[in-house]
């Protein structure tokens, strides 16, 4: 096991009725800006619950943060924060609203002229404006981590940011919110969380028995609850396990002491930036090709994954490893997720070269757990995914 440090300061309020308790988490004298997306919270009752919980607080709101939070929209929210002297942010939404709020938390205290530099120059955020979240869509894990991904339509970029100052102070996880989530977003959530575990697990054996088993149990739980959540999103037991699995998949715990990959996400973000494909779907497109391309260096963990998660116990290491890749792709397909780029766009020719060019320009010369994947390798992986 590798050396590690671990600190996660986010307080989780899990369960039915927890939205009400946010009033105890936000300082009484705070001037709060509630941030939300395209309006789903106004249809499912969450908006009213938040407003009633904060009836004694000084509360303003900013709605309209789109999926894949857009820089231009966030800059309008930043103006409100400055003009209204906001002191506390509250994200009510999925990964996009939470990530957008993290950007604002950072940008609100940033003294440079162009907040985009936080992303373009990879400036870590050590201190941000305090914020909490009410999660409405289990998927990204953003509710309990310190990372965010922001999109800029103008330049077709999608870049990450983060830092110790970007953990939410608290996050409400009320599984009852799952009942109103459309099927498309439910399968996205399952796929995204599942791939988060794969990125931190499908590398090479590192003698981290416990981290491996926690990862395997998160995947097993997602596989078990997926059909139940899809059949009945108001099944509370299924929704609770779905929600907590998604949070646990990316709150930092399973990546401690082990190598991590994240190449699938790096390449996937480009597909969202270029074509607007849902984040989770880009992962399902890239993951099978990535594991096939890096078969030799990943085959031991692939075989362990085959045995422990999919119960594929017969055959050689190579046989099991190969079966694991196919089974994973089938799992995504059975959720209704297409795993080839050409199923999302007719305009895919040249995509691989474009992504390779972008990685070269950014100096991303070493992706993956061995930091040895060059832009040329990413190009080949994307071509395999056409
Ligand atoms: O905007 P509204 O109207 O609220 O509708 C949203 C949105 O259209 C809807 N929705 C959310 N909760 C709902 C609901 N509809 C009905 N009932 C509810 N309870 O779902 C749609 C998608 O929401 P979005 O927040 O975009 O989805 P998700 O949570 O999948 O977030 C995706 C974003 O997170 C980033 C992705 O790149 C993408 O930009 N990620 C963030 C990560 C992180 N911070 O750690 C890690 C991930 O790998 C990922 O990159
Ligand atoms: Zn993801």
From TrEMBL:
Domain Alcohol dehydrogenase iron-type/glycerol dehydrogenase GldA positions: 9-175
Keywords of the record: Oxidoreductase
Coiled coil (residue ranges): none
CDD domains: BDH (cd08187)
Stored Pfam families: ADH_Fe_C, Fe-ADH
A GO MF label: alcohol dehydrogenase (NADP+) activity
Cellular component annotations (GO), alphabetically ordered: cytosol
Residue ranges of every copy of the Fe-containing alcohol dehydrogenase-like C-terminal domain listed in the record: 189-359
Family (UniProt): Belongs to the iron-containing alcohol dehydrogenase family.
Entry-linked PANTHER family: ALCOHOL DEHYDROGENASE YQHD
Protein name per the record: NADP-dependent alcohol dehydrogenase
Taxonomic placement: Bacteria, Pseudomonadati, Bacteroidota, Flavobacteriia, Flavobacteriales
